[in-house]
Amino acid sequence: MTDYSRFKCRFIPKEEIWKTADDFRLRHWPSGSLPVDIESIIDLKLNMHIIPQRNVKEYAKIDAYLRGDFTGIVVDEKQYMDDRDRYKNRLRFSFAHEIGHYMLHRYAYEQLDFDTPRDLLEFISNVPEDEYEDFEWQANEFAGRFLVPRNELIKEIDGVVNILKENTLLDLLESDPSRVLERVSPFLCKPFGVSEQVIEKRVRRENLWPPEKP
């Protein structure tokens, strides 16, 4: 049995994570159209399988995980097969997160053995908390930057600023920028196919909020 208590997550500067995500997008999604079709990239570019499996969410408290042999990404069947697409954006981010592990953490998967939800739960339960947090943070940062390209995000923010200007509401950016972001995030997130929480985190991580008044 693998001793996960000895696992160490290598430090990766956020700038390196961003460059990795940008380079990966340019290479595998050169059209730049939004939202990024992450499932096509997994299937056609990486030659991986998307593997629906029952009770992944219930058992391991996750939506998806990357198999240790890199042959595919296992996803919770109930969410993936939902006939109302209620989890579409959530799973888009989850898939991008697992690709983050694929791109950033190959060294780690040499130490790990993820074939079943039980394997993953064993890892989560025994790895040092701070190492696990770094491991997941890095994959999240990759996913956010990959799905929300900085230049496209700036364009969307510029559009919001123009709307505020047309409605003489620019002063709100100074008086209550968090409130404004909360109100506009449902519109900002739509082109990218991500949640409001993801888009709010991106604008702050990219130091784009509050935007400068024109």
Quick take:
With 214 residues, the protein is mainly alpha-helical.
Description:
The protein has 214 residues and is mostly helical. It has helices at residues 14-28, 38-45, 56-60, 77-80, 88-104, 106-109, 117-126, 129-147, 150-166, 172-175, 177-188, 196-205, and strands at residues 49-53, 64-66, 72-76. Helices cover 58% and strands 6% of the residues. Helix 5 crosses helix 8 and helix 11 (177-188) packs across helix 12 (196-205).
Task: Show the helix and strand layout.
Elements: H1 14-28, H2 38-45, E1 49-53, H3 56-60, E2 64-66, E3 72-76, H4 77-80, H5 88-104, H6 106-109, H7 117-126, H8 129-147, H9 150-166, H10 172-175, H11 177-188, H12 196-205
Parallel strand pairs: 1-3
Antiparallel strand pairs: 2-3
Report the radius of gyration as a whole number of Å.
19 Å
Shape: globular
- Identify the strand order in the major beta sheet: 1-3-2
Number of separate helices: 12
Tell me the β content: 5-15%
Which secondary-structure class do the elements indicate? mainly alpha
How helical, in percent, are the residues? 55-70%
Tell me the number of strands.
3
Question: Mean pLDDT, rounded to whole units?
Answer: 94
- Could you give a short account of the major beta sheet? 3 strands, mixed
Distance between the termini: 60 Å
Q: Note the run of SSEs as H and E.
A: HHEHEEHHHHHHHHH
Report the uncertain regions. Answer: none
Keywords:
214 residues; mainly alpha; globular; 6% strand
